[in-house]
């Protein structure tokens, strides 16, 4: 049940992220949301320092530790973070 709640929280965050205009990609709220999503998926990051919007529900996040992740919703509707 906890996993289902976490998945819905992540989907909700990404839905919010998709409504952010491309010009605001460096917005502190977006960076904080991406940091939270990556942490909830259990991936090393620390803090997202920059992000680039590729399309709706699809972002590339760069972490302070140098890791880069593509964060998106896959065809099954699950949030995924792929290391770049």
Question: Describe it for me?
Answer:
36% of the residues lie in helices and 30% in strands. The protein is α+β, with helices and mostly antiparallel strands and 84 residues long. The chain has one domain (2-83). A four-stranded antiparallel sheet has the order 1-2-3-4. A hairpin with a 5-residue loop joins β3 (68-73) and β4 (79-83). α1 (2-18) packs antiparallel against α2 (28-40).
| The number of domains | 1
Strand content: 25-35%
Number of helices: 2
Radius of gyration over C-alpha positions, nearest whole angstrom:
12 Å
| Residues in helices, as a percent range | 25-40%
Summarize the structure.
Helices cover 36% and strands 30% of the residues.
Please name the defining characteristics of this protein.
84 residues; alpha+beta; globular
Q: Helix and strand layout, with pairings?
A:
Elements: H1 2-18, H2 28-40, E1 48-55, E2 58-63, E3 68-73, E4 79-83
Antiparallel strand pairs: 1-2, 2-3, 3-4
């Amino acid at each position: 049940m906890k996993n289902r709640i976490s998945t819905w929280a992540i989907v909700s965050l990404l839905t919010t992220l998709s409504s952010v205009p491309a010009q605001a990609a460096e917005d502190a709220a977006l960076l904080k949301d991406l940091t939270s999503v990556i942490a909830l998926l259990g991936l090393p990051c620390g803090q997202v320092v920059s992000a680039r919007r590729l399309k709706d529900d699809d972002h590339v996040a760069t972490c302070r530790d140098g890791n880069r992740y593509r964060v998106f919703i896959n065809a099954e509707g699950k949030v995924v973070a792929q290391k770049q």
